[in-house]
Amino acid sequence: MTRTHAARGAAAPNALAGTWAAPGRVNLIGEHTDYNDGFVLPIALPHTARATVRLRADGVLRLYSEQGGGAAVELAVTELAPGGVDGWARYPAAVVWALREAGHPVGGADVRIDSDVPTGAGLSSSAAIECVMAAACNDLHDLGLDGPQLARIAQRAENAFVGVPCGIMDQMASMCCREGGALFLDTRDLSARHVPLDLVAAGLRLLVVDTRVKHDLADGEYAKLRAGCERASALLGLPALRDLGPDGLPAALGRLPHELRRLVRHVVSENARVERAVALLDAGDLRGLGPLLTAGHASLRDDYGVSCPETDLAVEAAVGSGALGARMTGGGFGGSVIALVDAGAVPAVTVAVEEAFRQAGHTAPRTFTAVPATGARRIA
Ligand code: GLA
């Protein structure tokens, strides 16, 4: 995973230019656990951000996005500063800034980005842009960083330059996921295991429902939740909530103010659900995942408070029409829902969700099925 060079046997990659791809993700289970040093289990989506990058010698970073409305953004790399760039361009700019901040000799480049990761849908479209840029810079500048190191750079870019206090899940998923499996990640030390997930062989599909409710993590709610978890772990004298297991939960809850109890309950039960999910996948019991997904949603809705009427309705309609289980995925406050569905039931579940949205007067959702895809790589 150290290098993202084109396939072996291909002509030697151009040292000054090339094209890279990095995917969006859905998280199967393990939500709001990553900034608590806990466990997550994401898969990469087939949807990617692609970046064609050509080095320049004049220190100018010229950014263009096919989805950016036509205008290119030109920045001097020496003048990059947190808060200094708006819109989509802040993601690639942030990565160049973070690499330079970490002491890597990254200069100017022409960058053309094209992405089919839905934006504002909780599918990590911004992490995909950050990771594709990190992979491109790593190869073109011969930095020799591995996937987790690049994910840390991308997270630093998002935290310090973009200003979103996210955890490491999205960037690790985009950098390190592999086709055909989920990434069982311990966010404390970034140790990871690829867990095979052959949905098709099991006669199953993962239906993704983008509720079209715009999910925006920069609005402060996410930061408040994160701060609440950090306060709880400090009050309990723990390095992180990850260090509290289900056995210690009742006593710990008794030591916390009311408003923090529900947060802690979610994080502890969610970490246990990730471990249970991995045990089920290891045992080949993919169907067993269904009830865990639905239980995870109930916890995010009732304890963590990050679902919304549209995600709740999508989960209810999916499960009510035969899905084995369903939950919101990602940070919440809108975004997407995943449902584990028998292959033959995909049309019926899709129609049931669409019909429920229509009856409730919500914008029509966007749906697609996803299989676990590959992380960041050089494609040309
Ligand atoms: C967002 C953040 C992640 C993670 C999830 C919730 O996607 O970027 O780091 O915290 O929310 O699990």
Number of domains: 2
Ranges with pLDDT <50 over ≥5 residues? 1-9
Lateral arrangement of strands in the main beta sheet? 5-4-6-3-1-13
Report the span from N to C terminus: 17 Å
What is the CATH-assigned architecture of the largest domain? Answer: 2-Layer Sandwich
* Helix-strand makeup class: alpha+beta
CATH class of the largest domain: Alpha Beta
Ligand roster: alpha-D-galactopyranose
* Order of secondary-structure elements: EEEEEHEHHHEEEHHHHHEEHEE
Number of strands: 13
The largest β sheet comes out as:
6 strands, mixed
Broad shape: globular
Q: How many helical stretches?
A: 10
Helix content: 25-40%
- Rg, rounded, reads 21 Å
- How much strand? 15-25%
Could you please say which CATH topology of the largest domain applies here?
Ribosomal Protein S5, domain 2
Average pLDDT metric: 96
Quickly list its features.
6-stranded mixed sheet, Ribosomal Protein S5, domain 2, disordered N terminus, alpha+beta, binds alpha-D-galactopyranose, Alpha-Beta Plaits, 4-stranded antiparallel sheet, single chain
Polypeptide structure, described:
It is a single chain. With 380 residues, the chain is α+β, with helices and mostly antiparallel strands. The protein has 2 domains: 17-196, Ribosomal Protein S5, domain 2, CATH 3.30.230.10; 204-370, GHMP kinase, C-terminal domain (Alpha-Beta Plaits). The protein has 10 helices and 13 strands. It has a 6-stranded mixed beta sheet, with helices on one face. Strands 10-11-9-12 form a 4-stranded antiparallel beta sheet. Strand 4 (60-65) and strand 5 form a beta hairpin. Helix 3 packs antiparallel against helix 4. Mean pLDDT is 96; it is low at 1-9.
